[in-house]
TrEMBL record:
<dbReference type="Pfam" id="PF02146">
    <property type="entry name" value="SIR2"/>
</dbReference>
<protein>
    <recommendedName>
        <fullName>protein acetyllysine N-acetyltransferase</fullName>
        <ecNumber>2.3.1.286</ecNumber>
    </recommendedName>
</protein>
<keyword id="KW-0808">Transferase</keyword>
<dbReference type="GO" id="GO:0017136">
    <property type="term" value="F:histone deacetylase activity, NAD-dependent"/>
</dbReference>
<dbReference type="GO" id="GO:0070403">
    <property type="term" value="F:NAD+ binding"/>
</dbReference>
<feature type="domain" description="Deacetylase sirtuin-type">
    <location>
        <begin position="1"/>
        <end position="243"/>
    </location>
</feature>
<keyword id="KW-0520">NAD</keyword>
<dbReference type="InterPro" id="IPR026591">
    <property type="entry name" value="Sirtuin_cat_small_dom_sf"/>
</dbReference>
<dbReference type="InterPro" id="IPR026590">
    <property type="entry name" value="Ssirtuin_cat_dom"/>
</dbReference>
<dbReference type="InterPro" id="IPR029035">
    <property type="entry name" value="DHS-like_NAD/FAD-binding_dom"/>
</dbReference>
<dbReference type="InterPro" id="IPR003000">
    <property type="entry name" value="Sirtuin"/>
</dbReference>
<dbReference type="InterPro" id="IPR050134">
    <property type="entry name" value="NAD-dep_sirtuin_deacylases"/>
</dbReference>
Length: 243
């Protein structure tokens, strides 16, 4: 069992509003690879992001890139939410003002029971026309094109060089500005503009709690808890709220 600082426990017990940001680290215990770790199966070790995570790469090989993400989608569908996902779903039920923003595209938060999830980078669960952006439900696996206009299909996610949804980004900024406490879980804190959100909260004298094996915000966050979210989050919630 982890031991948590008394002032951390007291801060969480007194909070009236909580914002959460999750990255790929929260889904790693579910068997979904992270992107930037040293692990052999890390996404950007297995794939060249310039080839599969940019629109230019997609234009060069739309079918090949689409198939890469279909394989990722199948992997996510086969995975199960872990204790970290379920712990956050419990937090949502406390009655405290609560907002959950995730950089993940695996839909595991929703499958764990979280009902209000802001998908910062989109979701593999949705497929769209690369020209018009409309949702597409069915397609020919050998020729994945939009049935309306014939343009190649793509996953409804944000690639490098593309803009985040303006509404979601504004909601994230507002939540980090106003919430008493920000939980930052399993994210490398590298990819902008999301990486700036914890710093935004700190400038406004908010409490930032980091949970990450590598604790990249150590010395910056108010509290840094080194460990896996599937182990630490349930323990923390039990200690604070007796759930």
């Amino acid at each position: 069992m982890a031991e948590f600082a008394a002032d951390l426990i007291q801060t969480l017990r007194q909070t009236q509003s909580l914002v959460v940001l999750t990255g790929s680290g929260i889904s790693a215990p579910s068997g979904i690879p992270t992107y930037r770790s040293a692990a052999a199966d890390a996404r950007w070790t297995a794939y060249d992001p310039d080839k599969v995570a940019t629109f230019a790469g997609f234009e060069r090989d739309p079918v090949g890139v689409f198939q890469v993400y279909q394989a990722m989608k199948r992997q996510c569908e086969a995975a199960q939410p872990n204790a970290g996902h379920y712990a956050l779903a419990q937090l949502e039920q406390l009655g405290t003002q609560f907002k959950l923003f995730t950089q993940n595209i695996d839909s595991l938060h929703q499958r764990a029971g979280s009902s209000q999830v802001y998908e910062v980078h989109g979701s593999l669960a949705r497929t769209i026309c690369s020209r018009e952006g409309n949702l597409v439900e069915t397609w020919n696996a050998e020729q994945p094109i939009c049935p309306a206009c014939g343009a190649p299909l793509r996953p409804d996610i944000v690639w490098f060089g593309e803009l985040l949804d303006a509404g979601i980004l504004q909601a994230a900024k507002a939540a980090f500005d106003s919430s008493d406490v920000a939980l930052v879980i399993g994210t490398s804190a590298i990819v902008e503009p999301i990486a700036s959100l914890p710093h935004r909260a700190l400038r406004r004298k908010k409490t930032v709690i980091e949970i990450n094996p590598d604790i990249p915000l150590r010395g910056i966050a108010t509290f840094s808890l080194a460990g896996s979210a599937d182990e630490l989050l349930p323990q923390l919630i039990k200690e604070v709220w007796k759930l």
